[in-house]
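I am writing to request your help with a piece of structural work I have in hand. I am sending you one protein, given as its amino acid sequence and as whole-number tokens for its backbone shapes. Kindly check, if you would, that the fold set down in the tokens agrees with what the sequence suggests. You will find the record immediately after this paragraph:
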Amino acid sequence: MNLTLKLAQQLITNTIEIATSKNQQVAVAIVDAHGELLAYAKMDGTAFHAGVLAQNKAYTSARDRQKTSSLAKWAQQTGKDLAYWTDAKFTGIAGGVPIESNQGVIGAIGISGLAEEDDEALALNVLKISL
């Protein structure tokens, strides 16, 4: 499976539908395996900073090949700062989740606008119903 524009747009649509059904407002970003932006949306009423965070979460997850929450745990356990990667876009804020196929990580989704744990749960749910 490849991460196509069509699939990226479907992930955005599914995210917005789920958030709307729960009366939530989020920003969502879909990136390719290198962290390059493929699709993005920020729902009306979503905090401005959530847009940048969603994109950075997706970028980090794609580049590091893991959930951003896992990266944060690793940083805490090792005592390393996220500046370790010398990439200002890297974040340990939960809500970035890799998109995987049998070929490995093909991209990532980043969601922001809710509590960190809720951002991640929504991202996982979107991937579950979409792939």
